[in-house]
Amino acid sequence: MTEISFLNMNGTQFAFAVTLFSGIFVAICIYFDSQRRKDPAFRKKLKMKRDRDRLLKKAYVSSINILHDIEEPQDQETIILREIELAESLMAQQNYDKAIVHFANAIAICVDPCNLLIALKQSLPPNVFDLLIHVLVSNYGKQFSRFQEDSRLKSIVQNQAIIRF
């Protein structure tokens, strides 16, 4: 009775086996990639991902400009109100991408963002609020983590921060 084992292979047989299995693995990868690209939803998902990345980039650039403009507490209140008004008018026009940028800016410069975030949770559609949380986590990580410990927001943030894109 002859047993076939990898231990009894010589160098040439082992190299052939590795090459064969590597080729099969690459062929399987190519097959599944072509299947993924043939999927009708692939282009839509790709477009959504690119739009989200573009939105995050705009939010980051906009937030840098807003945070440098603040000098006095009165200016801060004025900027927060202006950002919220702009966001609300953009929401009425169903321009959610730009509205999220303005909401994120208002939350970032707010002294007590917990109340504002709770109010937005109740008034915004769930998909818009999810994207707002994603923008806050990605652009304002340190600021967002400091009020994530608040018991009022802990359940909201934990449920919303685990978003699959």
Tell me about this structure.
The chain has 165 residues and is mainly alpha-helical. It has one domain (44-161): Up-down Bundle (Mitochondrial Import Receptor Subunit Tom20, Chain A), CATH 1.20.960.10. The chain has helices spanning 11-38, 40-69, 73-92, 96-109, 113-123, 126-139, 141-148, 151-161. It is elongated and about 80 Å long.
SSE order: HHHHHHHH
- What is the CATH class designation? Mainly Alpha
Number of DSSP helices? Answer: 8
CATH topology: Mitochondrial Import Receptor Subunit Tom20, Chain A
**What percent of residues adopt helix (DSSP H or I)?**
over 70%
Distance between the termini: 55 Å
CATH superfamily: Mitochondrial outer membrane translocase complex, subunit Tom20 domain
Q: Structural class given helices, strands, pairing?
A: mainly alpha
Low-pLDDT runs = 161-165
Task: Tell me the overall shape.
Answer: elongated
Taking all Cα atoms into account, the compactness measure Rg is 25 Å
Question: How many strand elements?
Answer: 0
Mean pLDDT over the residues:
76
Q: What's the CATH architecture name?
A: Up-down Bundle
- Largest sheet properties: none
Write a concise keyword list for the protein shown above.
165 residues; mainly alpha; Mitochondrial Import Receptor Subunit Tom20, Chain A; disordered C terminus; MAS20_rcpt_metazoan; membrane; MAS20; transmembrane helix; transmembrane
Structure described in brief:
The protein has one domain (about 45-160): Mitochondrial Import Receptor Subunit Tom20, Chain A, CATH 1.20.960.10. The model is unreliable at about 160-165 (pLDDT under 50). It is an all-alpha fold and about 160 residues long.
